[in-house]
Request: fold
Amino acid sequence: MQSTFLASVAARGDSRALRTGQRILAVLLVANFTAVAAQIAVPLPFTPVPFTFQPMVVLVGAALLGARLGMASQILYLVLGIAGLPVFAASPTLPQGAARLLGPTGGYLMAYPFAAFVSGWLAERGLDRRYPTAVLAMACGLAVVFAGGVLWLTIAMRPAGGFAEALRIGFTPFIVADLVKLLLAAGVMPSLWWLTGSRER
Reply:
């Protein structure tokens, strides 16, 4: 049912055409998918930042919902986490709740709403219609996620090696895998447009 509903969102071509109840449901679903993706986390011994599938859910969700609803879904996700619900990635050392935003992964999490807005804004302008431009739209959102994460590590965590060390632990270990995930995820929206028979905006 969830995938059918989201496909219908894509078929409409504009989240503004959705009714209020449908908008709320769509935001709830993407926030829920983000929380589920957070549970697929792989701790890495050389960095405090775990490997998760959250960024791809953030970007695909934004492409489906558009800038404002995509951003709203990630704000809701963060609010649920701050309230203490176990929606953040499970970790033996990093706490759930608001304190997670003050830890080493806080910058990535706080960047999610902005990344969703960027990718969603580009998708609203038709970049989600074809694979090459969908890759570009999602790459811009992913860049926002990494920028937030690395800057937070540099400023708040103050690693001994400064910005270079923040890149080493917060960017280098993830960029290849995230690009591969992005190349796969970018095919979702063009495929939905093809399946719904609506290729031109």
